[in-house]
Recover the amino acids of this structure.
């Protein structure tokens, strides 16, 4: 009897652990697959629209017009769907990246929600459109929104993720450097001096890269607050700011690459 | 009721549990060329840098070896930072409809 109860218990535990283990992994894979598949559909629909439009312009028949309007609606719909899928992926990344403060997370979610609302409305609107001029107008509206709002928003979020990941690397490099410097005590005088020289140089580089990361974080937080208030956003030179943040984080990454390379070298030197 | 829960049923349940366990192991094992875990665990990808492996083999001191391994993880993490765009391409969408 005990044996049977144990088997039942083990089966339940294994089933539960399987669900928990695979759900987080498969969520990202599923989001990515859906996005790539819908983006490919968008590309096909866009090509179909171009062909249908050419036919309509050549023949000018009512059936060609209906076909062209239908294909335009389909590609707008597919574009909105794949943009929504991409936003879902960004949302997932921010949700699962623990370095973000809760306050930053909430602000980023708010930014994503604004875009999601726009594209959901776009899908509803295109479903009811019948005239070609209305299709022209709605496409102009969405093109403007995509360039002025979605592209800057998503670029900002991607840069946020990149910065937070670089902070992880900075912390890791700092930990390893400190541990290696403590090793100096165990070695001969010449090796001790090599390690200490290296440690001082590394500290200097790490301090500079930390400053670059902090500057990037300040700019990104300012931009995030501006982006949440569109009227403020228009008054600022956002392109210059985001470019500066990107340069800061790139410089920090170059410095960290040097530190990582030096750690390898110092370990080899100490070993010989 | 007793007839339903025979020994065969318990053996089947045990087999089901084993299948589930194997599928968990298969799903957790890193797949060749896959970096789908990057947002969950930056250290999940195997380090494919052969130079690193060569250097690691030359180091005998276990403490130094540990530092090299930690550093190698940082290197991998750094490589993954810039892979977001490659993994998920940006939706460059052209929205323009221009019927005359």
């Amino acid at each position: 009897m005990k044996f049977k109860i144990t088997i039942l218990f083990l089966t339940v535990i294994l089933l539960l652990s399987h669900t928990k283990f695979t759900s987080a992994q498969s969520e990202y894979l599923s989001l990515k697959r859906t996005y790539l598949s819908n983006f490919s559909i968008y590309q096909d629909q866009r090509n179909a629209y171009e062909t249908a439009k050419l036919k309509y312009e050549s023949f000018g028949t009512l059936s060609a017009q209906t076909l062209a309007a239908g294909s335009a609606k389909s590609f707008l719909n597919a574009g909105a769907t794949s943009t929504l899928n991409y936003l879902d992926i960004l949302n997932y990344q921010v949700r699962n990246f623990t370095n973000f403060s809760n306050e930053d997370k909430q602000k980023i979610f708010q930014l994503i929600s604004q875009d999601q609302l726009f594209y959901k409305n776009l899908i509803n609107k295109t479903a009811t459109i019948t005239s070609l001029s209305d299709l022209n107008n709605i496409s102009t509206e969405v093109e403007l929104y995509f360039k002025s709002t979605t592209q800057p928003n998503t670029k900002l979020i991607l840069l946020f993720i990149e910065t937070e990941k670089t902070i992880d690397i900075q912390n890791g490099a700092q930990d390893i450097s400190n541990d290696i410097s403590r090793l100096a005590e165990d070695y001969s005088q010449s090796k001790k001096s090599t390690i200490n020289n290296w440690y001082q140089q590394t500290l200097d580089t790490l301090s500079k890269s930390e400053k670059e990361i902090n500057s990037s974080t300040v700019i990104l937080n300012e931009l995030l607050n501006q982006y949440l208030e569109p009227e403020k956003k228009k008054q600022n030179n956002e392109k210059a700011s985001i470019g500066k943040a990107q340069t800061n984080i790139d410089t920090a990454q170059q410095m960290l690459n040097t530190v990582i390379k030096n750690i390898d070298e110092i370990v080899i030197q100490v070993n010989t | 009721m007793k007839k339903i829960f025979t020994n065969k049923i318990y053996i089947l349940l045990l087999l089901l549990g084993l299948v589930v366990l194997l599928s968990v192991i298969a799903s957790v094992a890193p797949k060749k060329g896959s970096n789908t875990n990057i947002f969950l665990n930056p250290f999940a990808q195997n380090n494919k840098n052969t130079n690193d492996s060569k250097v690691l083999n030359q180091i005998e001191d276990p403490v130094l070896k540990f530092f090299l391994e930690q550093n190698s993880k940082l290197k991998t993490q750094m490589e993954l930072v810039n892979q977001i765009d490659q993994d998920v391409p940006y939706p460059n969408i052209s929205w323009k409809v221009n019927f005359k």
Summary: The CA atoms of residues 63 and 69 of chain B lie 10 Å apart. Chain B touches chain A through 51 residues (CB under 8 Å). The radius of gyration of chain B is 24 Å.
